[in-house]
Amino acid sequence: MEAKTVMCSYLSRKMSKVRWKPDNDVPCSKFLTGSWGESSQRLPNVEDIQGNAVQLWKYIPNMDPIPLYTMEHAGDVTELKFIDTKSFLVSSSQGTLQLGQIVHDKDETFFNIKSLNSWSNIHAYKNGTPSSLTSFARSKNGVVTVGDDGRLVVISLDNPTPLCSIEDPFNSAIKCVSFIDHKSVITGNALGSLKVWDLSSGQPKPVFSLPSTLKLVSINFIQQKPSQQHLLFVGSDDGSITVWDMRNTDSPIILNTAHNEYYQHHPFPRI
């Protein structure tokens, strides 16, 4: 069996998200990170960006990652996803979603991250206080975001204004969202509830809820299996993973409680 090397490097910030930059038919050599909990207070005589940031890195085997560019980010990075080989979406604990793009010169000696669009304060509590944008999902038709304010917001990437917004009748913080198909999404909230929404009418409408398997345990992620898109992997605050077959939602097909703490992300290999 081929030996595998595990590398550990200090990257100067507390990281909440790490995402490889996809490269067509080429092994990944660059990745983005997003930070959390960093103070935005400026220190005297320090010119580098302080506070939270989205950073681009280059990976070279058996070496520490090389920083290529740092983009200042307001609030904690709550989610970070590439939508193609250069563009990505990043969300904030201050209720903001941003579309960014990695640019570089021909020889890849100079890198930059430019902002293509931004949607500010799309998640906020009724008193106007910003709410964390906890998760988002993208399809060919647009983006759906959810937040601790219990709202679901529909966005088109070429429109600076959200298309519509609706509040979850449960009035509970929504922690994650995933598309089931081009016209419906599923959300998970802080009370352990999974709900399917219909987007076909232009205004999201709750259709039905899946039977609860864990009482009052927050759902942290919903991941669709790329090769079998009717299968959804659901991770919860207690470390459990539940697998649902959306062709028959009477009960989950798998309930795995092997983890004993917060389970946040379940990556699938690229296909």
From TrEMBL:
WD repeat ranges per the UniProt record: 231-254
Highest taxon listed in the record's lineage: Eukaryota
Keyword Nucleus appears in the UniProt entry: yes
Primary location: nucleus
GO cellular component: nuclear pore outer ring
Localisation per UniProt entry: Nucleus
Pfam families: WD40 (PF00400)
Keywords: Nucleus, Repeat, WD repeat
Protein name: Nucleoporin Nup43-like
UniProt organism field: Diaphorina citri (Asian citrus psyllid)
Source organism phylogeny: Eukaryota, Metazoa, Ecdysozoa, Arthropoda, Hexapoda
Annotated gene: LOC103510990
